[in-house]
Design brief:
With 200 residues, the protein is an all-alpha fold. 78% of the residues lie in helices and 0% in strands.
């Protein structure tokens, strides 16, 4: 724990001591616990936050993330589902639920979640990126191309989208277009992919 985290922990703990029902402080302390990989402590805070405010989308989303980190998939899914039940138009709820479904290998379910993200916010490039990724996973390459084109129209410097689109172009035999995307990618980040390999 660094000095800033130590100070923040004391601050949030004091705030909670003064008011055990202070939901915002509990969520902030939980985020800090998550940074420290203290997921059990985070879950305890978030459960108390939910008891104090049963409609707290933030608390449910954070607790779902903790459960996912602890490989408690059923509990994570229940919390993600509850967020969407509380707020059927929660863009972040569908985004996180989709990423969770993706991590579980549930491609079709994840794709449906990302579709909802793009409907709720047509200006969110990440929604189209993840939608395109799921379409690639089920080999719907033309559909993926539409999604990735939309993503890159919103954010032309989205490196992972450029990489994915170059792969789709290659698989469709459009080598010239694939090379154009790779060239753009290398201009944006000459070391693209190298750091990812080092972290493995």
């Amino acid at each position: 724990m660094n000095k800033n985290q130590e100070i923040a922990l004391k601050y949030y703990s004091k705030a909670i001591e003064l008011n055990p029902f202070f939901v915002e402080a509990r969520c902030k302390r939980a985020r800090l616990y998550m940074d420290l990989k203290r997921y059990g402590d985070a879950i305890e805070d978030l459960t108390k936050a939910i008891e104090a405010l049963p409609i707290s989308e933030e608390a449910y989303l954070l607790r779902a993330q903790c459960y996912a980190k602890l490989n408690k998939g059923d509990k994570a899914k229940a919390d993600f589902d509850h967020v969407i039940k509380i707020n059927p138009v929660c863009e972040e709820g569908y985004m996180q639920h989709g990423q969770f479904q993706m991590s579980q290998g549930n491609i079709h379910e994840a794709e449906e979640d990302f579709k909802k993200v793009t409907v709720l916010n047509p200006l969110n490039p990440e929604g189209f990126f993840f939608l395109g990724s799921m379409q690639i996973a089920r080999q719907a390459l033309e559909e993926a191309l539409v999604s990735l084109n939309k993503c890159l129209s919103l954010d032309p410097q989205f490196k992972y989208a450029l990489f994915q689109r170059s792969s789709v172009y290659s698989q469709l035999g459009k080598t010239d277009l694939a090379n154009i995307d790779i060239k753009k990618l290398m201009e944006l980040d000459p070391c693209f992919g190298i750091q990812d390999e080092k972290e493995k």
